[in-house]
Give the backbone structure.
Amino acid sequence: MAITFPANPANGETHTHNGQIYVYNSTRGYWLLKKSADVSVQQAQRSTFVATASQTTHSVVYDAGSPVVVSVNGVMLNPSDFTAENGTSITFETALTVNDEVDIVFYQPTASNLTRHSVSDTAPSNASSGDLWFNSANLKTYVYYDDGSSAQWVVTNPLGADGADGAAGADGSSVAAYANFAAFANGTTEGDFAFAQDTKALYVWDGTEWDRVYSGPQQSVEWETQLDADYTFVPGSNPTTLTVSATDPDGFPINYNFSTVPASTNAANITQGSDPNTNQFTITPNNFGTFTLRVTADDGVSTIKTTSSIQVMNPPQLLDLSGGTGGTSGSTVYTASGGAVVTSPYGTYNSGSNYWMEYLFDGATNTGSTTDYWLTSGGTSGDYLEVDLSSHTVSGTPIAYIEKIIIYPYSRSDSFTNITSVDISNDGTTWTNVSGDLGMTSTTHPLGASEQVDINSAATYIRLQMSRTGNWGYSMHELQIYAS
């Protein structure tokens, strides 16, 4: 933005704009910038030119950092309207118009009005009042002072007399050497050090115990003995102690801790051994339930963990599913006396009292009688036999865990049923596969042969997907379920 100066100024008249003071020089016929009250103009350089259309840069040599005054067509520009910093050119914020007359004046401050700073072992010569000198020999700062009658260097921060000596400090901590850690005596002062000669290890007394001081690259704690993946306990049985073991390559002591998920469980009480057996955890089973035990080992820097699934239940046993109702000729549902429900999409083959579902659980596994195995009236690919144990109880206790099943196919020359997959569930809706095709044939599984499928999972539903050969429906001699 252009500066509007007073009309018809007198020589020496001043004008202030944006905090800058301008002085009119009638001899030169233009306004001069007064940078500060203590800087006077000693000499000036001048450059004039006629602008071309849309010109924004003018090349000219000057001292970078010197004050610059630019006038266009006799009007002085505000310093924010141009940039003059590199000593080789001037850039205009707004492009000039063709035939604009540009007048540029470069000013240099008088050296006597500048404050000089010096660093040396000896006082500078030709000093002016107000100059500063840092004496690198005694690390003191001086100012050159002229009082009108004499001039000399005066220290800017004179020191007073030395104060009295302070009180003596407390004795530092001591370092005692011992043959090994077992020989350590309790420290008398928090912060005392002790050195174990056998392990070349340094310890510090924290007021209660000795803590080893870490040095060198950190090495992680490692397991020597971990928890098994799972454990099963019987409610009310004797306590069982689980032992883990970890080692630290750096020789630091190991800290053991445990937690459970869920955090609170009434299935068992867990107690940790006291020193030096903190790596032992005693499980006292109380009630039916399942939880996860997590044991950690750390050396104060790195931590490792081992986890195990804990189940408290009665030992799995062969379920008695006999003596139920339904599952007779044409029926698709059989209900065992304990509450288990057995279903299949196709009804039982209609032939008097033969082939009923209850024969799946009568304990006959190797007879050829036509009255002790199950047979459907038909079937299509993908049919199944499903057992719902969610309402089944043993001595009043609901089923929660299935260990295994044993399948005895009925083998005859004109009909055979194979199991293509075994799935389990806790709700009868979401299924988890535990076995694929068993590959049973009348050749590999003659009368009395069986196939065992290990499950070992918390579940209440079993579904057997089936395929068949021959003209008859699906068949099975015996189905044994071990659960608790």
